[in-house]
Specification:
- The protein is an alpha/beta fold.
- 50% of the residues lie in helices and 13% in strands.
- The longest helix has 25 residues, at 272-296.
């Protein structure tokens, strides 16, 4: 077997494959999108391109999950001739100072994108000297995903940029593929399919079997109830003059089309749009219940119905949940579900049979079972355990309801135990679909078919990597399982056709927007200025951003505008500007949710007490929009806004989106910068007051003292001297003055000025 010969690659380690050699050579000529079937060596191609670019500068490789980052770290550490410490793995568990140190010494850094994005925004290092950016699973380079920001920042700042994007499945939607290519500035597409002559010799056979099961009577009954409720909602929308599909054609695409109609009518100030919005929310919930019944089973459906009942019974529940739960048909369905003491869907028993048969045939084989929902994953792990087949659960980090997520460390440990054979069965959600290289996985089971061609290809790619493998897809007869099977199959064929077209030089690019192109150029200039060693930080607006705000796009927009950003854990507020301005940002939905479910006034009070210029930004809606987001009377919203502005003296600002929020914050910071040299008063208004008002004003400067308490205390003691000379016990003799207020006054009188 021939091996790759390269000064930076150990001899006899990487197999020489002609198609990989050709792809790697072409990838050195320009930004390249590599589309290869799973198991055909995308990572080997990346290694060869990296080995060539090491002499020019640093290599940065991005992967979407920590288990995948750890996998790449092991592969590159083993297969590149580098010294210890030259390959660094960046994670959120490394302190910023440690990452800065590693960035300075490492020649190859492998990281999840969120870590790099945060570090770039905080200007802990730049991408100036990065000679190659490798973007694994690059089909994610769309929308708000961190890959987009990093790729654009890299193109704007690197002295010799080169991008290598890798995926097994870019998708069948030409617009989405164009978006990926646009963000990565792709000029070359290198692709292969399993039937290509130079690839065929390395393809391992994968047998695909579709196994059908019947839906039990109880679930058919549940479906009939849910469908009758859906029919009623569709009639309501029709009566409101909305174009709606038949129930049988009510896909997510169709629901999105209805939502587009509703949003258009909202912009036209059509009051019926708010009713339609709530009905649409009911349809979404009921449609999800149908999915649970058809493809998941009684365990998942029962858990979902109970969550819906709990939400509807809560005073803070949405109008949609309350109306569904008040429907007598829903109550009958709950009564039916109460009798489900075990899983009735035959898929669960079928999974046990499939796994048992595989392990009888080969006791050392590995099996991955994919299920879309966590309820299904937990049910299957339990069901397999009851049948004497131990399985390990593999889900994402976030905890939802009673389902606890797995930390990145726990995810890596689960994969290690599966790879080493402590567990022979892994039951995973979509987090296990991308990139996991477990060569001995012999069987992959789809608990349900998925309509996404990307997800279908990713799931199938977990087997048949180094040897033949088998895939079994479970289909419930007469349900959307059957529809999704054909949808994903059709989309896979469309994707292969599109990839072949790109290979011939037809790289799809998004239609250029002149306004956006102009803004991108301006942003690039600002970014270059911000990262320049000659730039004067004293002349740049400075903003401190709370770490928890990094999930929004606001920080990215601020960075593109050229703001000097510091990340910190702010005890109050989301954005701190100078020593005066403190900003809390809430989406319109979060604003009303906090008002109903949490302590909005407590948060506003803390904000007001923590800065001389407190600001509350409500993003993504106007005052009128707030009225319809929850079951709250408009007067309650008006009174809340009035209280925030008048009682707490907090400035209210409404913004359209994250970009407009960033623009407002930048304007605040520029104003603060311009006034930075002037002496600032702690008092907002020094207008003339009467003698009584002046004394009250001074006493209310003590954090624990409000206007009424100040009047009562001064009435009792007569002078400020007497007030500040009093003991806590004497102060507490005043009606309404408690221990906390008295302690605040005594503490203020005795506190040293340091």
């Amino acid at each position: 077997m021939p091996y790759v010969s390269h000064p930076n690659i150990p001899p006899d380690t990487i197999e020489e494959r002609a198609y990989q050699t050709n792809i790697a050579r072409h990838a050195l000529d320009g930004n390249t999108l590599v589309v290869l079937p799973t198991g055909m060596g995308k990572t080997a191609v990346a290694l060869r391109v990296a080995a060539e670019r090491l002499s020019i500068g640093k290599i940065l490789m991005l992967a979407p999950t920590k288990p995948l980052v750890e996998q790449h770290y092991r592969y590159f550490s083993k297969n590149l001739l580098l010294e210890e410490g030259d390959v660094a793995m960046f994670t959120g568990s490394n302190s910023p100072a440690k990452r800065i140190e590693m960035w300075g010494t490492a020649k190859l850094c492998i990281s999840t994108p969120e870590v790099i994005k945060n570090d770039l925004i905080a200007e802990r290092y730049s991408l100036r000297d990065v000679s190659l950016l490798i973007v694994d699973e690059c089909h994610r380079t769309v929308g708000n995903y961190a890959y987009v920001f990093i790729a654009e920042r890299y193109a704007a700042t690197a002295t010799q940029p080169l991008i290598l994007g890798m995926t097994a499945s870019p998708g069948s939607d030409p617009e989405m593929v164009a978006e990926i290519c646009g963000h990565l500035s792709v000029s070359i597409v290198e692709s292969r399919v399993e039937t290509d002559a130079d690839v065929r010799a390395y393809v391992h056979e994968r047998e695909i079997e579709y196994r059908s099961v019947d839906l039990p009577e109880d679930l058919w009954l549940a479906l009939s109830v849910l469908n009758s409720m859906i029919d009623d909602r569709l009639v309501t929308l029709t009566d409101l003059n909305y174009r709606v599909p038949r129930r049988e054609a009510l896909s997510m695409k169709a629901l999105n089309g209805v939502m587009a109609q509703i949003q258009t009518r909202m912009h036209e100030r059509d009051r019926t749009a708010y009713t339609a919005m709530s009905v649409h929310a009911e349809l979404m919930k009921l449609k999800h219940g149908v999915t649970m019944a058809e493809s998941q089973g009684t365990t998942a459906l029962k858990a979902y119905l109970m969550r819906l009942e709990s939400e509807g019974a809560s005073g803070a529940g949405s109008k949609a949940s309350k109306r569904i739960c008040s429907d007598e048909r829903f109550q009958r369905l709950l009564a039916l579900a109460d009798n489900w003491k075990k899983e009735l869907h035959p898929k669960a028993d079928e999974v046990v049979r499939i796994v048992r048969d595989q392990l009888v045939e080969d006791a050392e084989s590995r099996v991955i079972v994919f299920a879309t929902y966590r309820d299904g994953v937990s049910m299957l792990v339990h069901h397999l355990a009851e049948a004497g087949v131990p399985a390990i659960r593999f889900v994402g980090q976030a905890s939802r309801d009673t389902e606890k997520g797995l930390s990145q460390k726990e995810q890596i440990e689960a994969i290690r135990q599966f790879r080493e054979g402590k567990y022979h069965v892994l039951v995973a959600t979509s987090v296990g679909e991308e990139g996991l290289d477990i060569p001995s996985t012999d069987l992959v089971v789809f608990y349900e078919s998925v309509p996404s061609e990307v997800r279908s290809i990713q799931r199938k790619g977990r087997t048949g990597r180094n040897s033949s493998g088998k895939i079994i897809v479970l289909i419930t007869k007469g349900t959307t399982d059957e529809t999704f099977r054909w949808v994903s199959s059709t989309r896979e064929k469309q994707m292969q056709k599109g990839v072949k077209a790109m290979r011939s030089g037809n790289v799809p690019l998004p239609t250029p927007d002149p306004a956006k192109a102009q803004m991108t150029l301006a942003d690039a200039v600002l970014r270059a200025a911000a990262s320049s060693a000659e730039s004067d930080d004293a002349e740049r607006p400075a903003i401190v951003i709370d770490n928890r705000e990094m999930s929004s796009k606001v920080a990215e927009h601020l960075s593109n505008l050229g703001a000097k950003i510091t990340l910190a854990a702010l005890p109050v507020g989301d954005y701190a500007i100078g020593d005066r301005v403190l900003v809390e940002r809430k989406t319109a939905q979060d604003f009303v949710d906090t008002l109903v479910d949490r302590d909005l006034f407590g948060q506003v009070k803390s904000l007001a007490e923590s800065a001389s210029r407190p600001v509350l930004i409500v993003e993504g809606g106007s005052i009128a929009d707030l009225y319809e987001l929850r079951n709250i009377h408009p007067n309650a919203i008006r009174n809340t806004l009035a209280s925030i502005a008048v009682d707490f003296d907090v400035s209210l600002v409404f913004t359209r989106d994250a970009e407009e929020t960033a623009g407002m914050l930048y304007a605040f910071a520029r104003r603060d910068l311009g006034e930075a040299k002037s002496e600032r008063s702690f008092h907002r208004h020094k207008s003339a007051r009467s003698g009584r008002e002046e004394l009250e004003y001074i006493l209310t400067a003590v954090p624990e003292v409000g206007p009424k308490s100040a009047r009562d205390i001064l009435s009792a003691f007569g002078t400020l001297r007497a007030v500040f000379s009093a003991t806590a016990g004497e102060l507490m003799q005043v009606k309404g003055v408690g221990e906390k207020t008295a302690g605040g006054i005594v503490g203020a009188a005795e506190r040293k000025y340091e």
